[in-house]
Specification:
Blueprint lengths: L15 H7 L2 H12 L11 E7 L5 E5 L2 E5 L1 H7 L1 H8 L5 E2 L2 E6 L3 H13 L2 H4 L5 H13 L3 H9 L8 H12 L5 H8 L4 H6 L1 E2 L5 E2 L3 H25 L13 H15 L13 H5 L18 H20 L1 H4 L7 H6 L1
Parallel strand pairs: 1-3, 2-5
Antiparallel strand pairs: 2-3, 4-5, 6-7
């Protein structure tokens, strides 16, 4: 990670009150946890030393939950003015001669943050990163104002499981990254309604929930998504406009496939108009003898390509209108889809 261009100036304790009063409501809420509320006496039980981040020559001890991390104050200060301020406060107690700083974060979050701070940016770019780690980096980089880590983490692609979509929405809201919201909210619409309403429970008991407004957005979008899927099927499964005279019976077969798809819409959860049909239609390729479905409705490759292209145009229109469907504004969204 890059160091700050100028060394930080230590803020006298007497300035805490004036700084606190100058903050916005959201900033004040963040700083309550970080700077202005500190434990007044040592913990009754000495925390466990972390197996990974306990350096014998470290000069500050971070305590998160019941885990202690002995690291280097200069490293933390070079990454974050907020962490610098936190470490500059008069400590309530010491461990092995090192000042102790209480963190309001969970131990696994602090451990993940230290992993990237100590190993630098290459830790992000040269390894597979789990969504869980990425979410931690975004949250804590925002909280502790580590600008380069936040920027790199928001740009870092990460495969998501369906339940990660709730976290993705909340991270987009936290960091005001509106470009993430359409797809993240759309993915939330694919979750079971119970999860949408009550949130997802992670191992350890932490529950990630959408705000009431975002839950309402998703609930209102569900019926529209169902209509869009119906229209996508009807518009895409029409070979009459292509002007190609097929010597096979593809028109009859595509009509039969359309009927089956419309029947599938009666099943709960069928509301996904934005998925590609390339693999789906490939099952009906009469030239691929390994396909299990081509014996029932075999189609020639040219007609399959026509259907896939027609469906692609429908998807593009759905994608352009996604923010409006979800009741959000994303500047430049529609233009970006044409690029």
């Amino acid at each position: 990670m890059t160091s700050r261009e100028q060394p930080s100036r230590k803020r006298p304790r007497s300035e805490d009150a004036s700084l606190k009063n100058s903050l916005s409501d959201s900033e004040r809420e963040t700083h309550e946890d970080l700077i202005f509320i500190r434990p007044m006496r040592p913990l009754s039980v000495e925390p466990d030393r972390d197996d990974k981040f306990w350096y014998k020559d470290g000069n500050v001890v971070l305590v998160a939950g019941n885990v202690a991390f002995r690291v280097y104050r200069g490293l933390l200060a070079s990454q974050s003015t907020v962490l610098d301020d936190l470490c500059s406060a008069d400590p309530a107690w010491h461990v092995d001669g090192c000042p102790v700083v209480h963190m309001s974060d969970r131990a696994e979050e602090v451990r993940s943050l230290l992993s990237v701070l100590i190993n630098g940016k290459t830790y992000i770019t040269k390894r597979e990163v789990s969504f869980e780690d990425l979410a931690i980096w975004i949250r804590l980089a925002h909280k502790y104002r580590i600008a380069d880590l936040l920027e790199n983490s928001l740009r870092r692609p990460s495969l998501q499981s369906p339940h990660h979509s709730i976290t993705a929405v909340n991270l987009a809201r936290l960091t005001e990254t509106s470009s993430i919201l359409p797809l993240a909210l759309y993915d939330c619409c694919q979750l079971p309604v119970e999860t949408l309403l009550n949130g997802h429970t992670y191992p350890g008991g932490r529950v990630e929930k959408l705000s009431a407004d975002d839950v309402q957005r998703c609930i209102q979008a569900l019926s529209v998504l169902g209509v869009q899927r119906t229209l996508a099927i009807v518009k895409s499964m029409d070979l009459s406009a292509c002007g190609y005279s097929c010597r096979f019976e593809c028109a009859d077969h595509v009509s039969a496939i359309k009927t089956e798809l419309l029947e599938d819409l009666k099943s709960p959860g069928c509301r996904h108009p934005l998925c590609s049909w390339a693999r789906f239609m490939g099952q009906y390729n009469r030239d691929m003898t390994s396909n299990v479905k081509n014996s029932a409705h075999p189609m020639c490759p040219r007609c399959i390509k026509t259907v896939i292209q027609s469906h692609g145009q429908v998807l593009l229109e759905c994608w352009k209108n996604l923010p409006e469907l979800l009741g959000i504004e994303v500047e430049g969204w529609a233009t970006a889809q044409d690029a």
